[in-house]
Amino acid sequence: MAQDIVIKAKVVDGLLTYSSLNHPKEAILLLRGTRNKKEIIVKDLIIPPLALHGYSYASFPLYMVPMDSSIIGTAHSHPSGITEPSLEDLSNFYGAIMAIIGFPYTSERNIKVFDRNGNKLSFIIEDQR
Ligand SMILES: [Zn+2]
User: Fold this and answer.
1) For the chain, which residues make up each domain, given as ranges?
2) Domain 4-59+67-124 carries which CATH code?
3) Least enclosed by CB within 10 Å: which of 44, 59, 85, 123?
4) For the segment 68-103, what is each residue's pLDDT rounded down to a tens digit?
5) Distance between Cα 97 and ligand 1 center (Å)
6) Taking the model in full, what pTM does it have?
7) What pLDDT, on the 0 to 100 scale, is given for residue 51?
8) Cα of 50 to ligand 1 centre, how many Å?
9) C-beta contacts of 52-61 below 8 A and 24+ residues apart
């Protein structure tokens, strides 16, 4: 059974802003939140420890990701604008979901969320409670 994916509005803003600030380089972020059988809720973004601007997601050192169960996935930008995961992206999958933010990073339509098999997942954007 599929889980609902909920992304807080401020997280959506953060993904778009951070991607655009790093353009034309690839931006990498960690997604923090909660998950249970029913839903995955993305509540915060974490900029990974390290100056990562030289890395692409495919070479991102996952051993640097804090061992923290609140990290529920990763996000990275595709400056090419193509919001499909590459084979490297899928083989570097970490957590439950992977968000890809495609150039021009202007709206949530530039954000796609995938599971570890590369299936596109729909998500709901929620304002702060
Ligand atoms: Zn990628």
Assistant:
1) 4-59+67-124
2) 3.40.140.10
3) 59
4) 789 999 999 999 999 999 999 999 898 999 999 999
5) 13
6) 0.91
7) 52
8) 19
9) 52/28, 53/22, 53/25, 55/26, 55/28, 56/26, 57/26, 57/28, 57/88, 57/89, 57/92, 58/86, 58/88, 58/89, 58/92, 60/28, 60/92
